[in-house]
Here is the input.
Amino acid sequence: MFREITTKIIRSRKEAFDLEEEFSELYAALPSPNVYFSPEWVYTWLSTLGRRHEVFFVIAIADGHLAGVWPFFEYPLPAFGKALLPAASQAADLFDPVGTPEAREPLVRALMEALGEFNFAWLPLLTRNFAEEVLEPLMKVQRHPHLLRQRTPRFLVDLDRFTDFTSYTATVFGPKTRQNLRRKARKLSEIGEVEMRTLDTAQEIEPWIPKMVELEKGSWKWQERAGIFQLAEMRGFYQILLENLAKSRRVRVCILTVDGRLVAHEIGFLGMDSYCMHSTVFDPEFAANSPGRLLMLFSIQKCIEEKRRIYDFLQNDAEFKRQMSTSESRLWDWIILPNSLRGRLWKYLIRAVQLWRDWRYNPTRREGSLEREMMASAAAENAKE
Here is the structure.
């Protein structure tokens, strides 16, 4: 049945917070909404990292009810003017709008129509489904200058292919690899008592956060300035985020300890039938025993037992992701510009920068992660373990 969709732009923080209850109801009613635009993510970001930014929410309404939300913020460019970036872009890994299928195209159209005062809007991580089903057809009939391209691999484990964890490991690993992993697990147990478990509630997670920060400080991620707890403001954001997500049962922290000492942890976000692996860290002192890999397998086993459909490694081309996944997709990069001379000039400038980066960093090479601190002054994030 066709429903008329209307759209609206929200630019005040009060209106954005007034939307929270209805946003939560919409999110809970959708079959597989973007975990990085859950109400917990968006409103934790608004209250912490987003406090200094002007909000720009694109919303869709059908029959008087909220049908879609696409949250952005205004970003002042170093030279002049301003751009739109997706909410939580400092930390999130996916920027598809949250909405019913019929609301997706109206949200895109509303965004394009509102670009007059901005130099561009940039969404660096979009799913292939959204790019191919919505953006590509729409861009073919629109005059707005834009840049839409595949950006980074996305590796997945199709959990519903397997009846149990043993069938999964037999599929993705050869006999020698399975034997090697068993040997490493045995060696680790010889060091001390090994425990792997999940932390699902705020009460369980909270006491481990300081230990997770310390573990990251000793890892290669801290040295490479790729840790999610690297900056003080990011630590504050994640601490509140994990608490808020835990209340809604939308986060899981897996930990591996040896004699009570934290040796590896993994943070994952829970969709309706999916698990998105956001970050994993291990103690380099135990690197020879692959504690991060063992913990990841524990996490996958838990997801199989729960009858989840997808374990999502998200962005990046890493060897362990290739080895442990069962399918590959792509994440897309979309830059949309105003339909004006200024928009076309910015398109040429951005395209020139893209071509230079492609040449400079050699696209035939496997790359690290995208910059998490997109266009901000903070350090760039690199590949997740």
Notes: DSSP finds 14 helices and 13 strands in the chain.
